[in-house]
Design brief:
This protein is about 40% helix and about 15% strand. It has ten helices and ten strands. The strands form two sheets. The chain has a six-stranded mixed beta sheet, sandwiched between helices. About 45% of the residues are buried. This is Glutamate racemase.
């Protein structure tokens, strides 16, 4: 079994680690675009062009499924990716976990990039799933870039700024950018209020990993013998895991496997 994941940068680590936990015997292909980052400020057409290049590089490794582990690419490029690659290669997109976040009644905050915050796409998901639950959209300028670069000071500053824009009574926070899942516990600590239970965080990594297995008819087998390979592609070039990836537990989990190019 071989699962490919794509993103602009290292935000794909969370979903890749989720796949690794469900199926430690799966080979992984990680395709990203450090030369083209960030994708957020690009036009929809430009994001689609970059996403197609990254997806084609991954598809050349003949995976069984491709996870688009990027909210921006899922918003803008998913139809084009599916039109080109399916049905030969199943393509699984990433959607902010708004539906499960409102199950507890809220209030809910959605942390996302400035480009996604207030977008018709995100507003449509809120209308579709939130119902009467109060939802606050919280832009997080600089957080994805800080996570990408493993810049500890910048991460702390960006999280603190976003936490200050988050209502004190929220009971759940949706992590609307895959990069944010790599610093989830730091976000949880920043939004916790004295005397109140910890805030529930809702990411997408586990759901997209499980959906990828479903699409190819595979069952989770977390106790399977680890015999996985790891191929890393950076803007079309075979490479090793970026050094910044090893700053996160998810990257270290993947880095424990010998690269297989």
């Amino acid at each position: 079994m071989k699962i490919a994941l794509m993103d602009s940068g290292i935000g794909l680590l969370a979903a890749a680690a989720a796949v690794r936990r469900l199926r430690p015997d799966a080979d992984l292909v990680l395709s990203s675009d450090p030369d083209g980052m960030p994708w957020g400020p690009r036009t929809s057409e430009d994001v689609t062009a970059h996403a197609l290049d990254v997806a084609r590089a991954a598809a050349a490794h003949r995976p069984d499924a491709l996870i688009v582990a990027c909210n921006t690419a899922s918003v803008h490029a998913l139809p084009a990716l599916r039109a080109e690659l399916e049905p030969t290669l199943p393509v699984i997109g990433t959607v902010p976990a708004i539906k499960p976040s409102v199950a507890g009644g809220g209030p809910v905050a959605i942390w996302a990039t400035p480009a996604t915050t207030g977008s018709p796409y995100q507003r449509g998901l809120i209308r579709e799933f939130a119902g009467s639950v109060a939802v606050t959209e919280v832009p997080c300028p600089g957080l994805a870039d800080a996570v990408q670069n493993a810049d500890e000071t910048a991460i702390d500053l960006a999280i603190a700024a976003a936490a200050a824009r988050t209502p004190r009574d929220v009971r759940a926070v949706v992590l609307g950018c895959t990069h944010y899942e790599l610093v989830a516990e730091r976000i949880r600590a920043a939004v916790r209020q004295p005397g109140l239970p910890p805030v529930a965080l809702h990411g997408s990594a586990g759901a997209v990993a499980a959906q990828a297995l479903r699409r190819i008819g595979a069952e989770p087998a977390p106790s399977a013998e680890p015999s996985a390979g790891l191929a890393v592609i950076l803007s079309g070039r075979p490479a090793d895991l970026p050094e910044a990836a090893l700053a996160y537990a998810e990257g270290r989990l993947l880095g424990a496997v010998s690269p297989a190019r």
